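User: Predict the structure for this protein chain, please.
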Amino acid sequence: MTNANKLVVNLSSNAKDDKSTVALTVANAALGSNMEVAIFLTSDAVELSRSGACEYTHVQPFKKLSELIESFVANGGTLWACTPCFNHRGLNAAETVEGTIVTGAGPMLQWIGSGAQTLSY
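Assistant: Here is the predicted structure, written as structure tokens:
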């Protein structure tokens, strides 16, 4: 049973890969169509949660990556950063994008278990 109003986007690419821009664009579009959306940052993507990490990434014709992340959180999106991936890279929770939740896979798995649709980038 799927829950058509919930979406989990699993993202493993950092700002150096245009997949991160595409994933954030899709996530923002889903929020705009009244879906409840969470992004789970894994592997290299946890670097996107670092404040200022995306300031210079702009893949045309999309919006700047920093704007996409800010808009996602401001519009009610949930931004999770994988704890082991985050710690492995020596990141500091005090230096993350506002709204970032450093967590294990539990919350994501709960959403999926309740029928959330999933996308992976």
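The CA atoms of residues 55 and 67 lie 9 Å apart.
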